[in-house]
Description:
With 275 residues, this protein is mostly helical. 72% of the residues lie in helices and 0% in strands. Helix 1 crosses helix 12, helix 2 packs across helix 12 and helix 3 runs parallel beside helix 6.
Amino acid sequence: MKRMAGRVLFFALVAVIIAVAVAPFYYAIVTSLKSGTALFRVDLFPSAPVWDNYAAVFREQPFGRNIANSVIVALATVAVSLALSVGAAYALGRIHFRGRKTLLMTILGVSMFPQVAVLSGLFELIRTLGLYNDLIGLMISYMIFTLPFTVWVLSAFMRELPRELEEAAIVDGASPLVIVVRVFLPLMGPALAATGLLAFIAAWNEFLFALTLTLTNDMRTVPVAIALISGASQHELPWGNIMAASVIVTVPLIALVLVFQRRIVAGLTAGAVKG
Length: 275
């Protein structure tokens, strides 16, 4: 009896968590299919779905360009972060040197700084480099929070790889670069998929840096573009358009997570057994 009650309680808790997580997105979908006064009614299903909000998002602002900007910046950020993190993870995870743990803690500590704390200094740096209102400037700024995360996760995964593989490669005369690229990299698929996808999501959703470091509509990313959608007057917000834009940029992320969910779990749990 207690076991049955425990299972019922467990599934009830899971149902509540799913409802809380899914309800905002479902509300966005329903609202995106409404117009006029129907926007202010709470309905489980829209009585007369209107698809014009989706067309208006692309018609009234360069939203397609904004999506392309987000894709370019997020992909570039992930590619550079993973390339640098693999080398750093090999050094921090496989090579013993004085201060290794301190360096790891420092890398983790950098990611704990709030964005607003580094915003002014970052703005001056980007402006000095001539990268203000430039996608390269956004990519560099995003690496502040993606690089520490990818280094930390990949270092934990690298520590768990069999040492015999490395020793055999050294006996065969392989250099550290060959060991990383040809021996370890093929084994790091789950970790690379997990860290890469989570870094992509973080870069895709980033708002503060994108708002501060871009100026023109054609250089903005989707979070900023959605925030700056306006109506006919400053007191009027086209909620239908905003919700439609939110759905458009969220669906691809949900699809990616569903496709790679097993690799995400495998990658994030790697290194959890032994320190």
